[in-house]
């Protein structure tokens, strides 16, 4: 039978790629963004979703401005916590399975090894706290759910580190980038394919899964690879320590995620981040042999 899937946050960087990947599947897709469905209002959520009775609700919606969340914490909480709770309530009510996207920012980054799904959480900023509250609300809701924690996302349709470095490289001879924060650069298209594969082979279990491209880097290493892949070698990337750039929100220093659980349960293993970056380069038409 054809699956019915609601994509929440379908105009976001990840949501657009999820839509692009799922529309090639045999599924009826319903797209929602903040204009046609404000997830912070439970009535709206119920009314919108009950009409379609989706089998899956994929929540890519979030308040994602990490620095601004320090001063707009109520706004961040409303979308990332209350919004997630509302979607969980609706999922339970209409018997849908909720696939919710979360973040490495639930961790404080002090473990000095990749985090697994059972590690203690302790966010160091308001965005991370709001996302953690969203996770907890879903876990406590008795809805059927999968929470996917990812990190360092970039994709064709959003503000992201790759595009920032490329823009800077066109006008500057050198760029200073922090070399003491570690994670896995992750291509949104690869996460979208993973979501497709989870739905295709769904075990029906509740749980949290880490999902990132394989391998790890510092922001400096990531920037240096961008310059190499996109052939912007006139610009030099200079490694610096993060205390050189004081930002409103603290970041976890080392939020690498261990993705072995999703490999074990769902046979999903994303390609290495360097290969994903080359694919992104190709996908956006920059690939020069
Ligand atoms: N970007 C990263 O590096 C990163 C890292 C780790 C985890 N994540 C998580 O990955 C997910 C996707 O992130 P992204 O970067 O793709 O986000 P994004 O580009 O900022 O998109 C956010 C989406 O949320 C929607 N939205 C915001 N407030 C809403 C509301 N009140 N009701 C309904 N929809 C609302 C937006 O709709 P409008 O377009 O209408 O405003 C937009 O479609 C999020 O859960 C984020 O926390 C992101």
TrEMBL record:
Broad class of enzyme this protein falls into: oxidoreductase
GO biological process annotation, one example: dTDP-rhamnose biosynthetic process
Keywords in alphabetical order: NADP, Oxidoreductase
Molecular function GO terms recorded: dTDP-4-dehydrorhamnose reductase activity
Highest taxon listed in the record's lineage: Bacteria
UniProt EC number: 1.1.1.133
GO cellular component: cytosol
Pathway: Carbohydrate biosynthesis; dTDP-L-rhamnose biosynthesis
Segments forming domain RmlD-like substrate binding: 5-281
Keyword Cell wall biogenesis/degradation recorded: no
Keyword Oxidoreductase: yes
Entry-linked NCBIfam families: rmlD
Family named by the database record: Belongs to the dTDP-4-dehydrorhamnose reductase family.
Biological role stated in the UniProt entry: Catalyzes the reduction of dTDP-6-deoxy-L-lyxo-4-hexulose to yield dTDP-L-rhamnose.
Name of the protein this chain belongs to: dTDP-4-dehydrorhamnose reductase
Species of the source: Candidatus Acididesulfobacter diazotrophicus
